[in-house]
Amino acid sequence: MMRSRAALRPLRRALDAPQREIGTLILLRHGQSIWNGTTATFTGWCDVALTPRGRSQAIEAGELLGERGYGSKITDVFTSELERAYETAALAMTAIEQHGGHRNPRTVRDPRLNERHYGCVQGVCKGDAMLLSYFGEAQVKSWRRSMRGKPPPLDESHPHWRPPPAPATESLADCQARVLACYEDCVKPALFAGPDRTVLLVAHSNTLRGLMASIDGVPDADVPSLHVPNSVPILYRFDETSRELVSRKYAPLEKGSAAGSHARWLLSSRNLIRLRSALAPGGVLTRALFDALDENGDRMLTADEIKLGVRKLLGDDQGSKRVIQRRFNATASPSRPSSSASCAT
């Protein structure tokens, strides 16, 4: 009898402990724009529209959030001043409302959430032969895949010139700095303004990349490689009291790296298609998953390691097993994606 009572003490302590109040930050990249995909253009602050596919992606993201119960939880929506972001936010919220959303969240547009400014190359195809010939492939790559590199500034003669306070050019570090200022000034106060708050932030690949890097403590060298697909909801959960992340940090992309993420991606049979490039051999998610499952670091996976690893990865996410099994069944044997082509010159 005494042993039975002793065994129950941890359970009683758990039941008596106060329940944590969780704040949820949902990050969402806009749907496909007319300069995404095969056009592969330096878009930056150019205010281009969504494609029909991009609008469909925004609606799908809202439907997914509604299906997962976030419709009645979202208290605030933050987005950039660019059409492709705020239209994605509007379409997603309309879809969410159709799944029970009724809190009528406030919406804030902030230019600090605008995409990274690409200076004089805004509006130019990334694979343009004249661009690569004039600046050199190594230079163009450094603008795209480093924290400090930035294209030459544009001036009043440029067709996509905007007067100050719009920047004339930016590095990824410059973009990250203004995004983090917005996060500290506006987003965090909304996220921690009360119990169980949920904030939706709809922005762009580089702005979200910079924010995620800060939240997860990603080294500068790894930030340009962070993968942010169109219209796939990315969730971070915080303890409202301590303001610390409550989700376990997933494995880094490379052994010995300080990178990794506390984020949880909401996947469906539809948005999973947009992750295929990351899941392809050598893709960032493939390597992250491999490292997470490789318990002894021998670069070989056994059946036991896979089973144990999957259980650990899903351990703090209620219902994940059912969701992943359902989505896996719906997307079994997906066809291989076609590679994106650069703009014709």
TrEMBL record:
Annotated ranges, domain EF-hand: 287-316
UniProt entry keywords in alphabetical sequence: Glycolysis, Isomerase
SMART domains to which the protein is assigned, alphabetical: PGAM (SM00855)
E.C. number: 5.4.2.11
Catalysed reaction, written as an equation: (2R)-2-phosphoglycerate = (2R)-3-phosphoglycerate
Keyword Isomerase annotated: yes
Annotated segments matching region Disordered: 146-169
NCBIfam families: pgm_1 (TIGR01258)
Family, as annotated: Belongs to the phosphoglycerate mutase family. BPG-dependent PGAM subfamily.
Name under which the protein is recorded: Phosphoglycerate mutase
Provenance organism: Aureococcus anophagefferens (Harmful bloom alga)
